Amino acid sequence: MTSLARRERLALCDTALREGPDAPTLCEPWDVQALLCHLLVRERRPVAAVGIAVGPLSGLTDRAMGRLARTDFPVLVERFRTPWVLPFAIPGVEQVVNTTEFYIHHEDIRRAQPGWAPRLLSDADEATLWSFLKVVGRGLTRFAGVPVRISWDDHVADLRGGEGDPVVVSGPPSELALMLYGRDRVAQVKYDGPDDAIARLRNTDLGI
Q1: pLDDT, tens digit (0-9, with 9 covering 90-100), for 10-50
Q2: Quick one: which of 173, 171, 163, 172 has its CA closest to 197?
Q3: How much is the pTM?
Q4: For labelling, which of 15, 29, 48, 132 has a CA lying 20 to 30 Å from the CA of 194?
Q5: What does the domain layout of the chain look like in residue ranges?
Q6: Contact 195, 175 (CB under 8 A)
């Protein structure tokens, strides 16, 4: 069975072609073409990609993205459709590194368009996302300043401890992922807990 990461890669490409290079994304001010350039730099330009995580080196990333932006859009999409040989084509690596990345960025395109609607993912795909969120969610909420717990049906995971009652964020993992990666305004989740703690969490710059 094809992994969720690979299917989201392919679906992202199809959505990008359908919406076009100038369509908006949730990663403002990037349009779809800029988002594709970001993903290609991240995957194929490891030196330039350092600037994604290290602010003082962001110029490396910006220049690499600028060079890619001169490429015809359909060529960019087809280039991204196939994983780069190393390390992403190694079995298991793409799943670990790209599952949440590609799901989130696919939704960045989808949910920036008028009339978007949430997708219905399979239970298996939701379980895959949940397995990642239990781990990466701890880092994503590190600046929250309040205890944070996520809940999906009978599944519960504490992402951040602390004094007081936790903020419990409930919903399918696909929606929890969007919330944890800073897409709160489009994430269809429910918040329970002290009002001040909820407000503090929702005002926190979550994500990487």
Answers
A1: 999 999 999 999 999 999 999 999 999 999 988 887 655 55
A2: 163
A3: 0.90
A4: 132
A5: 4-110, 123-202
A6: no
